[in-house]
Amino acid sequence: MTLFLVLSGCKNDDREMEVKTSKIDSLTQELNRQQELKDSLVNLREIDYSANDYSIFFGKEFEDIDNPEEHIVNALKNKEDLIPLKAVLGGSMEFRKVQVISEDWVLAIYDDGHVQGKSIFEYELQEDGEVEFNEIASQLPE
Length: 142
What we know:
Blueprint: H1 2-45, H2 68-77, E1 94-100, E2 105-111, E3 116-125, E4 131-139
């Protein structure tokens, strides 16, 4: 009788061990999946999204311009009168950063050393090679 109890106790221990082993395997698999997810998120965080990782299609009108993006940026930087914010304390407004964000729009950040604003401009290349800009939206200090 005691042998029976000992043997049945061993069988119960074996079943418990199998259940525990199964749970450990399941948790190990989930831990591996979570580690892969974490690694992929870390890799995404390390990507420099400030750089354009895609090419912008500028269209046929830009085909004779060697570097359309640079042409557009320089054209806007030379049109400080488009800045919708007045300088304060004797400063003068300048475009500090201009980034072409699509084949139609640029994002411009400007300041005078005291106040700063941001605008999105729509642009269009004219037949004479000049670039025309229209303000779409601006974020100005209150």
